[in-house]
Design goal:
The protein is globular. The chain has five helices and no strands. The protein has 125 residues and is an all-alpha fold.
């Protein structure tokens, strides 16, 4: 019984984590201009290409996680993706007041999400 419950919890966790990345990646296609502007402001060349390719990766890896396919590789890729996106767009060290507080809170949330990804990968091994 406990093995079945543990498996169900792993599946639910993968669905939620993967779904978060799929939804976020799809959302990027609706806010391409402001996100491209933010990426360009950080000095990244080919900002629109970086955004679109990153979003496609995010969606694909999220689906793999949800489907339980190549879970360890998808989780590792999403860890790298989330770290890169956090450093790139949540530069709280350059912000002031409310914007800084918001970026710090989002950074903390991203670190918690990153913490769940190796757990999902370990559950698939």
């Amino acid at each position: 019984m406990q093995d079945g419950l543990a498996f169900m919890m792993l599946v639910i966790g993968r669905l939620l984590l993967g779904g978060l990345f799929v939804a976020g990646g799809v959302h990027h296609f609706f806010v391409t201009v402001p996100l491209t502007d933010a990426i360009e402001a950080r000095g990244v060349p080919l900002a629109k290409w970086v955004l679109l390719s990153g979003s496609v990766f995010q969606i694909a890896a999220g689906f793999l996680l949800m489907l339980g396919l190549f879970v360890a590789a998808a989780a590792f890729g999403l860890i790298i993706f989330t770290l890169a996106a956090s450093v790139l767009l949540l530069n709280f060290w350059d912000m002031q007041e409310t914007a800084r507080d918001s970026a710090i809170n989002t950074w903390k949330s991203n670190m918690a999400i990153i913490g769940g990804l190796p757990i999902a990968a370990a559950g698939a091994m």
